[in-house]
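We were asked to recover a plausible sequence for a given structure. The inputs and outputs are reproduced exactly as logged, with field labels preserved.

PROBLEM: sequence recovery
POSITIONS: 491
GIVEN STRUCTURE:
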């Protein structure tokens, strides 16, 4: 572990600099005093022609840098953009120094956040062309050309959906139970073997939340744009529990203008024909069946108890029942897996010809069951970037294009998660969720409500508790707050 001392003449940039250093060196330490391995010193000088940054790296590595930004004087930018650019230049200075000091370039440059596409749309909204934004991504944000191209492609695919969705409301319903906990997982997920007694009280609380929210939606004449049941593993519910939930949704929620209805079934071992028939009958239009890998040894290792045969049988049933859209997720970078394994999984997904394929890059998280420091050496980190390039080419050759993406801290090799689709089958909820340009009400366990303010073009967030017992115990108070916020938002 290396220690860093960070200095900048502009106050309020310590966290900004630390985040940038951590993107390069995830285990970096920032002691308040004493000797450190590295010292980074930045000076930002505003003048009439724009901004100039001077930086110095000293200690175990040495580098110096000076660069200007004259582009910020473009009249399309306003005062907020000028302040924002100062922060970006600080990150640009830190990254440039660390790369000159011998660290590898980061694929996503100074875009350290979850949603790199937000900066893309921000610049497009200011009036820059796609080609201009792409160029800025490389020169100002230091993305490698391949990622600048990917982001441009994704951004352009998404823009028509902003108009289509407008400022409508979508709903996410979280079912926070799973058969077992996958070793890499950090989501709201409670294994049924230990938490089965919480399911019924949870469902009763969820029914109450749906009823109360639907009353407000009815009063205000609102219709839903998309509905997404995720988790956890929603298909863990018994057929009769699932029927009651789907029935309640159909009876109460305003689905008349719904563009998409997704159930994230997730684990193939929780699905059977009866549940699938129910989902189809209640109008589910998009279903996710996620193998993550088709290597049986890895499946066992990651704590997923389904077989490849179960995945194949489930996919056949989904196809037989003519669900309009099938999504399948896979994870790249699972311990013990090689390029051949990833390729075998991708080939199997391509053979199914599901409408959506989502490529996730493993992101070791502290909240996961696995101690990632123990399995680290088994992750073929150095191969991930090149294989993703190959996968992208194969998906493109099979008529899939990328339509949404996001990043996670600590993703293996600094890569991203990216959703691909056959033409016309974009998962609209995924775009809404990532780009945050309309309100999403989060119901159920771990449901995150995002309140979009069309004037400020900003979202604020209110989470539901992840723990099903806390959720059930606090349901009245949670719903009362949500109802009052919703009434303010729609009036
Ligand atoms: S099925 Fe999904 S939510 Fe459940 S434990 Fe596995 S990764 Fe987590």
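RECOVERED SEQUENCE:
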């Amino acid at each position: 572990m290396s220690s860093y001392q960070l200095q900048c003449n502009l106050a309020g940039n310590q966290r900004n600099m630390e985040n940038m250093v951590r993107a390069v060196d995830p285990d970096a330490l920032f002691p308040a005093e004493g000797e450190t391995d590295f010292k980074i010193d930045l000076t930002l000088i505003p003048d009439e022609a724009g901004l100039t940054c001077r930086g110095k790296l000293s200690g175990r590595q040495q580098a110096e840098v000076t660069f200007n930004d004259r582009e910020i004087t473009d009249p399309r930018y306003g005062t907020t953009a000028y302040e924002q650019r100062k922060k970006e230049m600080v990150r640009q200075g830190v990254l440039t120094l660390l790369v000159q000091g011998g660290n590898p370039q980061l694929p996503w440059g100074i875009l350290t956040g979850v949603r790199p596409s937000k900066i893309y749309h921000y610049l497009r909204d200011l009036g820059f062309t796609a080609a201009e934004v792409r160029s800025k991504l490389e020169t100002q944000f230091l993305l490698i050309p391949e990622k600048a191209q990917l982001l441009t492609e994704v951004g352009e695919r998404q823009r028509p959906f902003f108009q289509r969705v407008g400022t409508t409301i979508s709903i996410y319903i979280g079912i926070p139970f799973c058969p077992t906990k996958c070793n890499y997982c950090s989501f709201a997920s409670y294994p049924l073997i230990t938490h089965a007694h919480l399911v019924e009280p949870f469902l009763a609380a969820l029914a109450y939340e749906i009823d109360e929210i639907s009353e407000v939606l009815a009063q205000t004449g609102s219709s839903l744009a998309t509905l997404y049941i995720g988790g956890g593993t929603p298909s863990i519910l018994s057929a009769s529990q699932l029927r009651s939930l789907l029935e309640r949704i159909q009876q109460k929620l305003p689905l008349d203008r719904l563009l998409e209805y997704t159930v994230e079934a997730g684990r193939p071992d929780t699905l059977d024909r009866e549940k699938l028939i129910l989902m189809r009958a209640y109008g589910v239009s998009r279903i996710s069946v996620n193998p993550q890998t088709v290597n049986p040894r890895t499946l066992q290792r990651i704590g997923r108890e389904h077989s490849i045969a179960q995945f194949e049988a489930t996919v056949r049933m989904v196809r037989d029942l003519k669900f309009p859209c099938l999504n399948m997720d896979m994870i790249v970078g699972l311990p013990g897996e090689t390029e051949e394994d990833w390729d075998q999984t991708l080939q199997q997904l391509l053979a199914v010809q599901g409408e959506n394929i989502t490529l996730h890059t493993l992101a070791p998280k502290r909240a996961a069951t696995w101690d990632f420091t123990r399995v680290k050496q088994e992750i073929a980190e150095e191969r991930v970037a090149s294989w993703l390039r190959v996968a992208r080419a194969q998906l493109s050759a099979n008529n899939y294009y990328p339509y949404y993406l996001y990043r996670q801290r600590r993703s293996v090799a600094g890569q991203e998660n990216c959703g691909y689709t056959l033409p016309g089958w974009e998962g609209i909820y995924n775009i809404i969720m990532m780009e945050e340009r309309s309100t999403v009400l989060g119901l159920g366990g771990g449901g995150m409500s995002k309140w979009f303010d069309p004037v400020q073009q900003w979202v604020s967030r209110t989470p539901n508790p992840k723990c099903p017992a806390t959720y059930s115990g606090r349901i009245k108070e949670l719903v009362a707050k949500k109802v009052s916020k919703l009434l303010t938002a729609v009036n």
